[in-house]
Structure formats: structure tokens, C-alpha cells
Amino acid sequence: MIVKVNKEEVRIFKGANAKHAILKYILKNKMDVSALDNIKVFDSKGHEIGDDSPLKEGQSITFKI
Amino acid sequence: MKRILSILIIAIMGWANIAFAQNGVRASYKTDINIVSVNDVHAAIENMPKMAAIVDSLRAMDKALMVISAGDNRTGNPVNDMYSDGSYPMIALMNQIGFTCSTFGNHEFDSGQEGLARNINESNFPYLCANIFPDQELGIQCEPYKFFYVKGVKICILGVVEAEFGGIPSTHPNNAKGMKFSQAEEAIRRYLWLRNECDVFILLSHIGYDEDVEVAKKFPEFDLIIGGHSHTQIDGGEIHNGVLITQNVNKLKRLTHTVLVVENGKVTGKSATNIDVANYPKTSVAAKALVDFFSDNPEFKRVLAQAETPFSSYEELGIMMCDALKDFSGADIAYCNAGGVRFEDHPAGDFTVNDVLRLDPFGNTAVVVNVTGAQLHDMLIACKSVDDHGFPFTSGMSCEVTYTDKNRSGIKELKLFGPDGKPLNLKKTYKVIANSYAMITSDLPGDNQGEDLNITTADVLMKYLQKMQKVSYQGRKCLKENF
Q1: pLDDT digits (tens, 9 = 90+) for B349-366
Q2: ipTM, 2 decimals?
Q3: What architecture is domain A2-64?
């Protein structure tokens, strides 16, 4: 499925959660994987969501370190 | 005498109100309904004593306080999930706190059919879900809705769970065998008549925030939607089309205290505030004692299998983890990242639950994908490129890797071999399984990214060991390294 992380499209397996998609984004952008330990994740409306929130096709999330 | 008379009159009025309400006649006075709601606790039992203290303190002000869960009470903490009677610690704590009701989250089904039926029987509160239809022989007791009579107010709570994973909730498909599910919206439409039978109409939803907003837009009949599933932190509550929606992030970091003002059978005011559970200064001693009891869990010492020979390398343990994945899924090939194997030796003898949780502590899930041999070749290289621990371990195939240097910092050549020792057919499509971390780091291009099987790899290994009873991996190799 395709989701958006920080406005960037990420392809990820069906049933992935927010942390999975962010890991893929981090690897794609050659960021430090340890950043995953200190992230805050938000949905498209700006609500904070848990980092293991389930994702669905087309969903947009953002994260901050 | 005058005082006794007035107490008697108030008591009769109260009784009359309750009696009228029970007969479907609207309560005719003003009162507050206090509700504490949680969602997606995911077995964060460490926060339950604080929640208990919050509930105790609110109950001191309102004995009729309702305590409600929007599902996913379990899954996320081995202390709970690996208990011999899976999920009993959470249920015991919910019983102690005095929950009014819960709906099913998709993870309630992780207990399996038998486990879920047992968990329901252990609960002192009902499970409400209108879009599940279990076969009768499974013994899964739940109701689509339930009326609660609180301070003379007739409250109806209707429950729904998401069924977006191919028509079932997001759990391993085996856990949903013998159960049918309808879409939540269809179930809601079917029960809209309840609006005319109560003073307060609440949807207890495990379908996610976006879906709750859609429901509110379509069905203003609800006074309140207590939501879950998307782990969305709503600041207090949000009103959409006149419907109050609440939800919190997971793991019981916060809960919501909702107050509904009911006057002459109608909700005339509603508000919701978050309470920070994780940082709440008080703890219930009784709940803490239960948590301590469950944390000292003999289940962790349970022997799953006998290791007939000692394990003396990451590779031997990694191959066993991959064998478990392959056996569970029927895949042709399994692999796991080297860093996902957390210890390198284990003596012959007992292999326990605790050993599995130490070996695979990350909560990774199993993911399957169909790829060609050539794609798998590239995936393994990509997986290694972000793992300093080494090359992935495999089952159903073996690898010969030639590095550019002794530090394994680059790969010059990778050859793949089938179980017969012959080169793997790079054009053939294989069903491949890996843990979720390995699958993501393998950077598979294109739209075919595979599917999560909704089971942790630690669970898969436990099932494998229980099935095998005896294992021996001494000297097993899946990898030849050249420098």
C-alpha cells in the first residue's frame, strides 16, 4: 500500500503501522534509524497518534524528532 | 418526622424516574452522567494502578461513574499476552477497576476463538459489538448493544469493530475463523432505531478516528462516540455534526473523562477532558498488588521445547527463527536480519517462553511477499546494508556472500542456493516470509510490498517450539562468507 510520510510517498506492506512507514521513510532519506526512538507522530489533521497506529491505504502522517 | 418524609418523597421520585426510564419513558430531571473511557490500552498493565486511582477518585464524587473501553485491551505486553490464560491479567485488572463494558478491538481476536470465549467468560462486564456474527459453537458471548440505567437515565451503548482486513478485523485470519463480520456502518444503520428507546445514545467504536467523524456526519443520532483503533489523541473531545467524539493515544497514557448533562430525557450539555494517566501522582495499592503478582509470572519459565544440543552461534538460532516462520506460513523461503537475533548461545535442555522473548524482543510481526529469486537477491543485500550485525539468516535456501573487506562493509558478490544446494532460480517466484523490520529494510521496490500476517515473530517461534517438542541446530549453516 502507499501512504504519505511527511508529504512523501512511501510504499509499504499491507497492515503496516506508523512506525513501519516512518522507518521506510528514514531509510529512504538516509536518516539515522535511531531517530525512531524519539518521534512524535501526527495524523493529517494534526492529532498526535501512537507510533504503532495502524495505517490504511492513502493515509498521510507526519513525524517530528 | 418532616425530614424522614422528605427523604421518602425523594426516594419515591427517584424510584419513579428509574422505573419510567426502564419502561422507555424519558427521565424528567437534570443530572450529570460521568464516563471514564479508555482505548487501545494494549495491555499496558503498568498504568492500570494509576487509572484505578483516577477511577476511585471520580467514583468518590459519583458512584454511578461508567468506565468504558473502546477495545484493544490486549496485545503489546508479554506479561499479559503470554499468560497461561492469555490476557487474564488485563481482565482481572479491568474487573477490579469495575469496567462497565468494552467493545472488541481487532486485537481481542489475537486470543484465538477459544481464548476469546474464555476471556469473555472471565470478564465481569459485557462486550458490545453489533457487526460480529460468531458460530454458536465457539461460545463467544457478546451483545450488539446494551441498555444501562444510570441515575434514572436510560443509556444505550452500541458497539462496532473494524473489519477492514479482507472483511475481518486486523488479526491473523486463523483467529477469525468461524466468525462473520459486517461493515460497521451497515451495523449502525441496522440499530438506529435504538435512538428512540433511550435518553443517551453512545457508539462504542473501534473503527478509527476518520471513520468516527464520518459516522458523526451521517448519524447525528449519537450523543457520543467513544472511539479507538487509530490511537488518535483528541484534545478532550471534538464535536462533529453535534456528536461528541473522544479517543486517546495507546498504552493508557491518557484517558477521557466525559460529562453528559441530561435534562428531561435529552443530552443538553457535553464536555470531555483528558487525564494524564502516565503521570498521575496516585496509585491504587490493590491494583498495584495485582500487577506485581502478574509480573512475577511463572508462565515465562514454561518450557516450550527441549534443545537436544546446545546453540553456539547467532546463525544456529537465526536458522531456527527462520524455520519457525517458514513452517508457520508455508512459505518457500524465510529470512531474518542478523540484528534481530539477540543472543548467540544457549545450553542444551529447556527452551522457555522467556528465552524466546529474550531472543526476539522487538515485537516484530511476520510479513509475507511473493518475489522472484532476483528480487530476493537484491532484498537480502539491501537488508544487510543497514545491519551492522551481519548478513541475514535464512531457511529454505542458503547464501554465499563475498565482501569487499573484512569489516563486511560492502558486498562484492552474493550467490543464492536452494535447499538442494543448486543455484536458486532467479526467475522463479517464491513465497518469502521475514520479520517486519527485515522486510522494510530490504527496500523492495514497486507496489508489491507484501502483507502483514498480524502475528509477532516471537509468537510464531513459540508455536514452532511447542509443535517440535525437541530441536537440534548444532552445526547448522545457512551462510558462507568470503572476504
Answers
A1: 999 999 999 999 888 999
A2: 0.93
A3: Roll (3.10)
